[in-house]
Structures are given as C-alpha cells and as structure tokens.
Specification:
The complex is a heterotrimer of chains A (121), B (682) and C (496). Chain A has 121 residues and is mainly α. Chain A is 63% helix and 0% strand. Chain A has two domains: 2-39; 58-114. Chain A has helices at residues 6-29, 36-39, 58-83, 93-114. Chain A starts with 5 loop residues before the first helix and ends in a 7-residue tail after the last helix. By secondary structure, chain C is mostly helical. In chain C, helix 13 runs antiparallel to helix 14 (332-363) and helix 14 runs antiparallel to helix 17. The two termini of chain C are 13 Å apart. Classes of the chains: A mainly alpha (121), B mainly alpha (682), C mainly alpha (496). Chains in contact: A-C, B-C. Chain B binds chain C through residues 69-73, 643, 646-647, 649-651, 653-654, 656-657, 659, 661, 663-665, 667-668, 670-672, 675-676, 678-680, 682, and chain C through 159-160, 163-164, 167-168, 171, 204, 207-208, 211-212, 214-215, 219, 224-226, 228-229, 231-232, 280-282, 286, 289-290, 297, 300-304, 431, 434, 477, 479, 482.
Chain lengths: 121, 682, 496
C-alpha cells in the first residue's frame, strides 16, 4: 500500500534536489565580489529609515497572553452551554462544575490585576 | 503489641541509650552522669518486676510471647530477629535487673573519685544492654551478637584500670578465652542453620523434632553450642580467665562474674536444652562435674578473698552445667537464680571488706600490704557487723544449710546427678564430683568467714581504722542476704526441705526434642526418687565441711599448716591452681609462638636470603623487562590508558554540549531517526 | 466512573488545588520581604495532601474521570515520593541565599502546581492526559528554572528549556496522534486491545509512534539523546530548583514510562519474544542501548566538570541511565528495582544538592575550589557529603548500594542476553567512583585542619541529618521500604 505514495516521494526529492542543486551551484560557480551596496537590506529601493530592531513594549505581549487565556475560557463555555440542558438531570452539579472552572480562572485574573499586568504605564 | 513485648523493648533499649549518653556526654553532666545509668537500670528493674508480677498473676507454666521482624529478606534468604518472653526470660530479666541495679548503687561509693567514673557507668549500661539481648533473644543470630557484646563489655570492665598491666592483661585474657569458646559456638550455630535453614528457636526446635538434623551431626552441633557456654561460663579447660578477672572493680565482679555474664552460658544451655542430644549432654555433665570439683580443690588454699570467691563461682557454675547435663535443667536454672543472689552478696561483702582495708591502709600510709589478703584480716566481726551478718547468711546458703535458698537448689542438682547415676551406673563419677565439691565448698567458705571476721586481728594496728561501709554499700548486702532465705522461692509453701513453690511451678521442664532422649517426666521421676538420699548425703558432707573448717580455723584444734606440710605437693598444686595457666603457657602458648617464630625464621632468614637471592639476579633482570612491559604497556597503556581514554572520551563528549539550542534539537532529531532505522532494520 | 463519582476519590488533588489557590491569594497579601511565608502555607497544604493520599486507599484499581486517571497503589507510591521530595525542597529553598532577594510567593505556588502536574503524570492512562500532565510540569519548570531574573545564566537556561521542551512536546504529540490514528482511541487499555489485533502493515507506523513518544518521555527523564537540555538548565537554575528537577519530575517521568510501556506493550505481547502475527519490535535491545548510552555519557562527561553543580547534573543523567537498565525487563523485579532505586536516590540526591547550597551560601560558589577543605572547616557537612558521595557511587552499606543491587539483580535474572548490560553498568559505576571521590578528596585531603569548626544553623543541620540518616540506615535495614513497594505493585500486573 505504501507503494501508492511513491510518486510523492519523487516529487519531494525533485523539489529538494532543485533547491540544493541551485544553492550549491551558485555557491560554487558564482562570482565573489563584495560590495557594500549588495549587503544592505532591501527596502523597496529607497534608503533605509530608522533602526531595524525596534523595541516593542512588553505590555503588548502580556495583553495578548491574557487575551488568549480568557478567550479559551470562553471557548470552553460554548460546548458546555450546548449540552447544559441534556444533563440537567444531574442537578446543580453541572452548574457548579463550570462555576468552579470560572472561579479558578478568576483567581488568576485577580493575581494578574494585583501584580500590575493591566497597568499601561 | 503485647504488653510484655512493649516492656521488653524498653528494658532492651533504655540501657543502650544510657550507654550512648554517658560515653559521649558523661563527663559534662552533673555527677558525671551516674544518674543516667542508674535511672535507666532502675526503670528496667521496675519493668522487670512488673513482668514478674504478671507472670505470677497468670501462674501459667506454658506462658510464651514472641515477636519478630524481618531484618534481611533477599529472595529465599530470610533472617528474622526478635524477642521471646516466657517464664524463664522474665525470671532471668529480673535477676539481671536486680543485680545490675545493686551494682550500680554499690559503685556510687566504691568508685567514688575515680577519674573515669562516667565511662565506668557507660560500660555498665552497655553490659546490661547486651545481657538483656541474650535473655530476650528468640533466635541464634541476636543471641550470638549479644554474646559477643557481653564479652566485649566484660573485657572493657575487667581492664577498666587499664594503666595497671595485670588488669589490662586480664581483660584481654577474658576476651581471648571467650573467643576460643565462641569458635565452637559459631560452628554449632552454622551446623544448625545449614541443616534447618533458619536461626529462630521455634524453627530450630521444630526442625530437630522433625528429624532434619540427627545423630552425630546433632551431637556436634550441641557440643559446639556448649563450647560457647564453656567459654562464657568458665568451665574447664576455658576457666582460666575468671580468677584473673578479679582485677576488675568488685561491683563488676559481683555483676558479671558471679551473677549474670557467667550465668549466660547456663542460660543458653537451659534455653536450648531440648535440642542437645543425650551424647552431648554426657559430655556436658562431665565437664561440669569435673570443673565443680576441680575449682573447689583450688579454692581451699587461696588467700586472696576475691580469688576464693572466683574459684567458688567456677565451681558453682560447674554444678549448674552438670545439672543440665544430667537432664535436671530446671534445677540448674534454680541454682542460677539463687547463686546470683548469694554469690553477688558475697562479692559485695568482700568489696565492703576490701574497701575498709583500703581506707585503713591509706590512713596508715601503708602501700605495701595487700588489702585483699585474708591473712591480713581477722576479727572484723565487731567492726563491720552488717557486712558480717549478710556474708554469713550467704555463706550458709552456698554451703547448703537448710532454711536457706542454696540448700534447695543444690539439693535438686545433687538429686539429679544421683538419679542419673542410678539409671546409668557407668557414670558414677558424677555424684562423686557433686558431693565432693559440696564438702569442699562448705569447708572453704567457712574458712573464708573465720579468717576474715573471727579470731584475733592479724594486723592489730589496723583494726581501729576498720569501720562499716556507707549505706550505698550495705543496702545491697542486706537486700541480697534477705533473698538468700528459702522462703522467697517456695511460696506459697513453707516447707524448707522441699523445693515446691512458685519457681518449680512456672519453670516447667520441657521434654527434649531429640529422638531417644528421656522424657521430662522420666527425669522428674528419677529426681523425686533420689531426693531423699541426696538430701541426707548433702547434709552430711556439708556438716563435715563446716566441722572441719570450724576445727581448723576457729578452734585451732587442727592446724592448717601441719596438714599443708603433710600434703605439701597437693597443697602447692592447689595454691598454684594446678599450674593450668603455666601448662597452657608451656604446652600451648609457647609452642605456638615458637612455631610462629620458626616459620618466620624459615621465611625471613632462610627463604628470603637464599632462595630469593638465588633468584635475585635473574629476577632483577626479568623483573626489569616485565616492569617495562607492565609500566609502559599495561599500566600506561591499558590501566592508565583506560582512565585516560575515559578522560579524553569525556572531553570529546563534553564538546557535544555546545550550548547552542539548535544543536540540541538537531541531535535529538538525529537520535530519533537513528532509533527508527534500528527498529525497522530488525 | 464518571466525573461526579470520581470526585470523592480525588481528595488529595482537590486539597492540592485549594492549596495552590490559597497560595496565590496569600502571595498577593504579603509584603515582598515576607514572601517566604507562602512556602509554609504550601508546606502545610502538601502535608494535608500527603495524609489525604494515604487515606484514599485503593484496595483495588479504579479509574477516575471516565478512564483518564488511574487510582492504584502504584500511583499512590509515586505520589508519596513526590510529596516527600517536595517537602524537602521547600525546606531547602528557605535556606538558599540565591532566592533571598526575590519575591518567592510565586516560586512556591509554581512548585505546588508542579506537584499537581506530577500527580496527573503518575496516574495518567489516557493519551491526552499524558500530554497535558507533561505540559503542566514542563511549563512550571520553565518558569522555575528562570526564576533568578537578574541572573543571566538563569534566563538563558530557562529559554533553552522552553524551546527544547516545546520541540520535545511537539515530537511527542505527533507520536501520540499517530497512535490515536492507528487505534482510534485515546485510552490506554483500549489501545492495548487494538494493538494486539493489528497486522504487519502498521508495523512502521507503530515504530514511529513509539519512538516519537519515547522522545518525549526521554526528554523528561534526561535519557540520551534527549538529555542535552539537562546540563545547561541544571546549571543555570537556582540550586533548589535543580535539586527538585533532578528528583521529582524524573520519578514522575519514570512512573509514566513504566505505565505506558507496561500497559501498551508488555500486555500486548510486543515486548518480549512473542509468536503473534506482529513481528517483534526489539524494544528491549533499544532500551538497553539507550540505557548504556545514558549511563556512559553521563559518567564520562561528569569527569570533566569543574563545577560540582554541573557534575551532579551529569550524575543525575547517569542515574537515570542506571534506572533505565531495568526497563527492558519490565517484569515485577524490574519495576520493583526502579521504584526502590528512586526512593534511595531521593535522599542521596537531595542531600548532595543541599550541601551544594550550603557551600554556595557560605562561599558564593559551587566549584571544586569552593569545596576545598570543607571537611575540616565544617565537619558535619563534610562527613554527610562524603556519605552522599559514597551512596551515589553505590558502596555498601549505603542506600545507593541497595538500589543498584536490586537493579543489577533484576537484570541478571532476566537471562544471559542481558549480561552485557550488567557489565556496562558495573563499569560505569566504577567510572563514577572517580568524580564522586574527587569531591571527598577535595573536602578532606586538601586544606588544613582548622581549630574552630563551623556548623550550619540548627534547622539546616537537622535537615541535613534527616536526609543523611536514611541514606545510611536504609543501607542496612530496608525491609519496610521493600514491603511498601511490593504492596504498591500487587495490582500492577492485573491491569483493569
């Protein structure tokens, strides 16, 4: 059965081979003249403006992290909401289960708040 | 856990704790820490008394509690250690605790001012700990370990005043002699272990009963075990250490060499009686009987008060051993207990006397006279009344005078030997040994009393300085003297001529498990029949002995010197303990040392010089060659090379750790691919 | 059993979660200088969890939460080991000078979270739970390794750990998903059934899956060639964290490894020679090879180290190698040997690291130079360290010897085909003697005898003795531990 995938292997080898061959050939055959202009980064033809390495404020990263966490929390709420009715026979347990989940994440939220993750300055 | 086992654990570990505290911190504690050891041993005493009360309360001869834990378990090889508590254990624990407490108290005054006071008490605690180990053990392994520890404590305590050469030598002698006996002991244990596969008593007992080990092998095992008893209980020919052990402090002598340590051998024989074959028992009986007589013949001429008591102990131990041999092992145990009381008392009494002599001589600035020589004593009766009366009571006991405890126990032993001889007429010597020793015992003990306490003082200038000892020393005397009366052993009966009582009820003779051995019932029957004749004969010989001593030393009707001159050879032999030590020196120690010297000569002077030198030149050259091969080839190449290549390999391999994460991931990937390839290739 | 019923058996973990939450809150309420108190709270919570663990006894195997967690004596044993090592590490962390300048509230909280993750690891019998638990433990360790924010090496080690951990998790997840694809289920026992029915065409997929999963597990227990993160991370992380990482996650990793291979492969007959339709995958030989590589590399490179901490890192790699020796066997003997080795290893390794901390507190460094003459200056510490070194080498009568003895015995009993493995193990033990004795030599044979002796504080001395006493004592009398382990294994072979 694996013989069916044989053509894919060929394609893979050809593609990889093409890449390697061209790289090696240019390395061997091409001229080696250094020129400062050749080394400069490409910026649509115009001269460079500003540094390439800008320091990003780390608060963006923190906000993104917090967003991810609470976004996933909401995502977990959806399937629960969908099957909620079917499992009502278990009584309050099904509700309390989700409340516990939310409470634990709330602890995390309080922690982040108290530690100044939500401050912008 | 059973309450008896709980108590036993306390009894076992408290003295050990006291030992550790005193040996490490004793000097820094107030009063040098004697209260630590004394406290520990008194608690032990209280617990033993509680167990004893429990035993009397349940009054059950078959009482038995056992508890063990697994020490080593490697597949099939399992060794369990644990405690066994039955009536014999409880009685023995009480004896040990009582005498040990008395020694501890006695030593407060006796060892006062000694610079190594705390160490002394530490050693006493160590001894108590190991002795309890012997008593409580339910298996041969713990027994053997505690046995060795007891021997060690004995050596340390005998040689306590190690600055004195004779004391240090005596300690070593004790240890060495014990070791010789222990070789046989260990062989016996190994024989049993190989045949039965376990070291616990219950397994061994059932093993013998099922016939797993029989015949000559079993006899050998029994004799081997008895060798340990010979060493520890100082039977001929391993008796030589006990008289020398008198170099130790007197409370030590009372504790170890009268009551407990030397009794350990008897205790062990009593415990293991059911597996000793009749042939081994005969051997045991003869050794015991001969020792009993032999030692007492030496005791009659000794002048050092402690030496008399020492030989007396050897002799009494011989009695006990002989009793085990004739099958009356309950009588042996009975005598063990009574002997512990009165012999310890006698030792304490002698300690009291020696203490008084020391003080008196010190006052007179006399450092030449021997304070232990009875020829320097005499007339102490008025000056030391408590000592006198308590020693007198104990002397009555040991001589076998009715109304005292010793009479009952000795009687039982002698009845046992008489009954044995009745059933096996070829062993007629055993009662001869027994009664002969009884006669001599009565004689020399009263000789001791008369020479020390009666007559005119032999050194009149000392007598005003002699006074009674302080209460820490007289209290044990009074207590033990009281316990030398018969009544304590015969309750609830009051017959001074019969040993019926709580003792003979709770300590019941068990039938031997060896095939072909007489049953306990048969032995008891025999003893019962011989009881009356034995009592009559023993009363006769005791009376005769006391009469002789009375005439010779009190009334001076017969002169001791005249008899000494008439039988001068015998007298000299006896005074010099039959030259046994000298014989050993001449026939054993010296030849062995000479042989060692000869072999050394052969080796060093002959072989080395001629044979080796003869090879020398060739070997030097050859060695050079080999050396080069070895050093350059083997050492450098292989041995060092292995080390160096390990080093270099390590060096190379450490370069794998480049510190760059990309490489780590790459290597991990390579590893995965490699493993997959290996898997698929197979 | 379903979720509601499982809760009543889940007490230890629930207590643990409560502890974590309480620690988070407590940390917010305390001032930075008092942040060590959170550690005490976590300590108390862990002690309660320990008791809850003992009382939630399992007289039979049960599965919780719809067959994703197993509650059996095997898991309980490992949970106990993990809690004990954590308790020791918390006490050790309080004494470390490295952490003194930082707020340690989060430190203890993270340790508690890691314990929770390890609890899940040792009970996991579902593929997803395997992945989840390993991730919880890994992420917590990433942060803990980089806890010294002002120390460059700590940051570097944390970063390396993160990236490498992500890579290994990725590999493992790939393997897990292939396994899922092959069998159609994520529960161990159902997988076991399906695998025994597979035919040869899935052979290759099975190999890939198991090798990739092994890569993930190997990363956790630092087996060659997945160990490369270990020296860097162990060296950079704060020493208490290193001590913790070298004991607890390793133990949890081994538990998971044993369970995984035992359930999936042994019972399905793939481990030893079998005559099923499936051709045998030479797992025993491969595992043995990995074991030898791990031991050898760990020991050889340890010789070259000049830092005691890094040497101990390599030595922990080598010890993982010794334990892996018993993996090809996976009989009762083999598992027993690994478990008893872990118990002994716990004490001696934690002890050795604690001594490194004490030395670092005193001299500020962790190289052999800093250990010079330690035996003369701080005799208690010197003697105890010597004891730990002897135990790590495996010299009787220490605990390390007993552990090695059981491992070797298990391998020998497996038959002549593994004698080369025993030989390799023995040679490695000899090699390890060198670098362990180097510590002893530097401590006692160099430096002069000092007049005044320094002793660590009462608490430190007590802690050191508590770690040293079992190292010596268990070398003489280890029967209770052996009994406990045998008890823990009594349901192991029956499965569910």
């Amino acid at each position: 059965m694996i013989e069916n995938y044989f053509p894919i292997l060929i394609v893979f080898l050809v593609a990889a081979g093409f890449v390697f061959v061209s790289l090696i050939l240019t390395h061997l055959v091409g001229p080696r003249i250094q020129n400062p202009v050749k080394m400069m980064p490409y910026e649509s033809g115009v001269d460079q403006v500003g540094e390439t390495r800008i320091r990003f404020s780390i608060r963006f990263f923190l906000i993104a992290l917090l967003f991810i966490i609470f976004d996933i929390e909401i995502i977990f709420l959806y399937p629960w909401a969908v099957v909620f009715n079917d499992f009502l026979s278990m009584g309050a347990f099904i509700f309390i289960e989700m409340v516990v989940f939310l409470v634990i994440l709330a602890f995390g939220y309080v922690y982040a708040w108290k530690n100044g993750a939500l401050e912008w300055e | 856990m059973n309450i008896f086992i709980e108590y036993s654990l306390f009894i076992y570990f408290l003295p050990l704790l006291a030992f550790l505290v005193n040996i490490f911190f004793g000097k820094r504690l107030p009063r040098h820490g004697d209260w630590v050891s004394i406290g520990a041993v008194l608690i032990t005493l209280a617990l033993s008394m509680a167990m004893f009360a429990g035993m009397l309360f349940s009054y059950d001869p078959d009482f038995r509690v056992e508890s063990s834990f697994t020490w080593i378990s490697l597949g099939d090889f399992v060794i369990q250690l644990g405690f066994l508590v039955d009536n014999i254990t409880i009685t023995m624990l009480l004896v040990v605790a009582l005498i040990s407490s008395m020694s501890h108290i006695f030593s407060i005054k006796y060892m006062e001012g000694d610079p190594l006071y705390s160490r002394y008490y530490a050693y006493l605690s160590l001894f108590t700990f190991s002795m309890n180990g012997i008593v409580l053990s339910n298996n041969l392994m713990l027994l053997y370990m505690s046995w060795e520890l007891v021997g060690l404590s004995s050596c340390l305590l005998i040689g306590f005043w190690f600055a004195k050469k004779s004391a240090a030598d005596a300690g070593m002698k004790a240890f060495m002699t014990n070791r010789v006996g222990d070789i046989g002991f260990f062989i016996g244990i190994m024989l049993l272990f190989t045949a039965i596969g376990s070291v616990s008593y219950s397994d061994i007992f059932s093993g013998v009963a099922n016939g797993k080990i029989t015949g000559t092998l079993l006899t050998f095992a029994g004799v081997g075990l008895f060798f340990g008893a010979m060493g520890k209980s100082s039977q001929f020919p391993l008796h030589i250490w006990l008289p020398d052990a008198m170099e130790g402090p007197t409370p030590v002598s009372a504790l170890m060499h009268a009551a407990t340590m030397v009794a350990a051998g008897v205790f062990m024989m009593v415990r293991l009686f059911p597996i000793i074959s009749p042939d081994a028992l005969v051997f045991v009986a003869y050794i015991g009987g001969f020792t009993a007589l032999f030692a007492s013949t030496i005791a009659i001429t000794q002048n050092d008060i402690k030496k008399v008591l020492a030989y007396s102990t050897v002799s009494q131990l011989g009695y006990m051993i002989m009793s085990v041999g004739t099958g009356a092992y309950v009588a042996a145990f009975f005598h063990l207990v009574t002997h512990a009381m009165f012999k310890a008392n006698l030792f304490y009494g002698s300690g009291s006397v020696i203490h008084a002599m020391h003080h008196a001589l010190h006052k007179k600035h006399d450092h030449e006279t021997d304070p232990q020589d009875m020829r320097n004593m005499g007339g102490f009766k008025e000056k030391m009344p408590i000592t006198y009366w308590s020693m007198l009571v104990s002397t009555f006991a040991i001589a076998g005078v009715p109304f005292f405890s010793g009479f009952l126990s000795k009687d039982a032993i002698l009845a046992g030997s008489l009954s044995f001889a009745n059933h096996h007429p070829e062993h007629f010597l055993l009662p001869v040994f027994g009664f002969g020793a009884a006669l001599l015992t009565a004689f020399y003990m009263f000789r001791l009393i008369y020479m020390t306490f009666h007559n005119e003082p032999q050194m009149p200038e000392l007598i005003e300085e002699i006074h009674e000892s302080p209460k820490e020393m007289t209290f044990p005397l009074v207590l033990l003297a009281t316990l030398s009366f018969f009544i304590f052993y015969t309750l609830p009966y009051f017959n001074p001529f019969s040993d019926h009582g709580w003792f003979t009820y709770v300590i019941e003779a068990k039938t031997s498990l060896v095939h072909g051995a007489p049953s306990a019932h048969a032995i008891a029957e025999g003893i019962h029949h011989s009881h009356l004749p034995a009592m009559i004969i023993s009363l006769l010989v005791a009376g005769l002995g006391i009469l002789l001593a009375w005439q010779m030393y009190l009334k001076r009707k017969l002169s001791a010197e005249r008899y000494a001159n008439k039988f001068s050879t015998l007298h000299r032999l006896s005074l010099n303990k039959f030259y046994v030590d000298e014989l050993y020196e001449r026939f054993i120690y010296t030849p062995v040392l000479k042989l060692a010297g000869k072999i050394a000569f052969l080796d060093w002077d002959l072989y080395d010089k001629y044979v080796v030198d003869g090879f020398g030149k060739f070997t030097e050259w050859f060695a050079d060659l080999i050396g080069k091969m070895d050093y350059d080839g083997l050492d450098q190449g292989i041995v060092d090379g292995t080390g160096r290549s390990a080093n270099r390999l390590g060096d190379i391999l450490r370069n794998l750790q480049t510190g760059q994460l990309q490489n780590y991931i790459l290597f991990a990937l390579f590893g995965v691919i490699l493993i997959v390839i290996i898997q698929t290739m197979v | 059993m379903n979720n509601l019923q499982s809760l009543s058996y889940y007490w230890p973990e629930l207590l643990l979660v409560t502890t974590i939450l309480a620690a988070v809150v407590y940390d917010l309420l305390t001032k930075p200088s008092e942040s060590q108190r959170v550690g005490l709270l976590v300590f108390a919570g862990l002690v309660l969890t320990l008791f809850a663990n003992w009382f939630t006894s399992a007289e039979r195997n049960i599965t919780l939460f719809l067959d994703s967690l197993a509650l059996d004596p095997f898991a309980q044993f490992f949970k106990t080991i993990i809690i004990f090592s954590t308790l020791f590490v918390i006490l050790i962390s309080r004494k470390s000078n490295e952490l003194r300048i930082y707020r340690t509230g989060e430190y203890y909280t993270l340790i508690a979270i890691m314990v929770f993750g390890m609890f899940l690891m040792v009970s996991a019998i579902d593929l997803i739970m395997v992945y989840l638990s390993i991730e919880v433990v890994s992420i917590s360790s990433f942060i803990l390794a980089g806890y010294l924010k002002q120390d460059q090496r700590s940051n570097e080690s944390s970063l390396k750990y993160v990236i490498y951990g992500a890579f290994s998790s990725g590999l493992m997840l790939f393997g897990l998903s292939i396994l899922f694809g092959l069998t159609g289920t994520t529960k161990f026992f159902e997988i076991q059934n399906v695998i025994s029915g597979l035919d040869t065409s899935s052979h290759f997929a099975l190999i890939i899956a198991s090798v990739f999963i092994l890569a993930g597990f190997g990363y956790k227990i630092s087996a060659v060639p997945f160990h490369f993160w270990t020296p860097d991370v162990y060296e950079g992380a704060p020493t208490p964290v290193t001590a913790y990482l070298s004991v607890a996650p390793k133990a949890a990793g081994f538990a998971l490894l044993i369970r995984f291979f035992h359930v999936l492969f042994t019972d399905a007959g793939l481990f030893l020679e079998s005559e099923n339709g499936i051709p045998t995958i030479p797992w025993p030989q491969v595992l043995a090879g990995i074991s030898v590589a791990t031991m050898t590399l760990g020991n050889l490179v340890a010789i070259q180290q000049s830092s005691v901490k890094r040497m101990l890192a390599y030595s922990s790699i080598a010890h993982a190698g010794y334990m892996l020796m018993a993996m090809p066997i996976l009989s009762g003997n083999g598992v027993f040997a690994i478990m008893i080795y872990l118990v002994m290893y716990l004490f001696m390794n934690l002890g050795a690291f604690f001594v490194v901390i004490i030395v670092k507190n005193k001299t500020g460094g962790e190289t052999f130079e800093d250990f010079r003459g330690l035996g003369w200056e701080m005799p208690l510490v010197g003697i105890v360290m010597a004891l730990f070194m002897f135990s790590l080498t495996g010299i009787p009568p220490t605990a390390g010897f007993i552990g090695k003895f059981y491992i070797f015995a298990a391998v020998i009993k497996a038959g002549p085909s593994f004698y080369w493995l025993v030989f390799a193990g023995a040679v490695n033990s000899v090699i390890s003697l060198y670098y362990y004795m180097r510590v002893v030599k530097v401590m006692f044979l160099e430096g002069e005898s000092k007049e005044e002796h320094i002793f660590p504080s009462i608490l430190e001395s007590a802690l050191i003795i508590i770690l040293a006493a079992p190292t010596l004592f268990l070398g003489v009398y280890w029967a209770p531990i052996a009994e406990w382990i045998t008890n823990s294994l009594r349901f192991f072979h029956q499965g569910i």
